[in-house]
# Entry
Amino acid sequence: MENNFYEQEKQMERQAVGESLGRYTAKTFLLMFLGLLVTFGVALFLAGSNYGRYAVHYALYYVPYIHLILLIAELFVVVGMTACIHKISTTTATVFFFLYSLLTGLTFSVIFIAYEMSSLVLIFGATALYFGGMAVFGYVTNIDLSRMRNVLLGGLIFLIVMNLLMMFIPAFEVADRVVCTIGVIVFLGYTAYDTQKIRSFYGAYQGDEVMLKKASVFSALQLYLDFVNMFLYLLRLLGKRKN
# Structure
């Protein structure tokens, strides 16, 4: 009976009217790429220019808890978009997505100042390679990756707990390399899982053009988060800080 899952998806695709699954998937990944472009563009500008570095140092010095403010703003944007995806318009969802990308770029500027540029480029290339490989696997495989959901969620909860413990209990910092390795593995799994979900959304909302577009934005956000988190864990694991 489980084999019928993908047979039904293929049948829905053949019966579908409008853009193909391949085109729909490509547009979703293009939106994700544009979000990454905003994030890394903002971070590179702020970290690479004198005015940008001055603005970052000024904010860190004169704005109390700036990191916490940006984190809360990012959480507000992503939670708000996720919770209201059925109520907001496609344009609003897209604005939320790019706003989140912009806020992440502001937080990344501090990281880009702290690390060697050659190291950042190398880690970005490695992330793109790993991400691309798992995305292709998630798109072409006939294995139902939804079975991985509970395992991936458990891994995500473990990462959140361990990162909080390392923030408040210095003794836990000795496990940082192990945590980072698990983080890379978890988000590799999420990349394949979220890529396959694009196909599921395509089948589920084929008759609703508006929801299909909003599902594309939501999938782009999920894939964006997978890439960004994988990049951060690889950077913590292999990155070289400036003296």
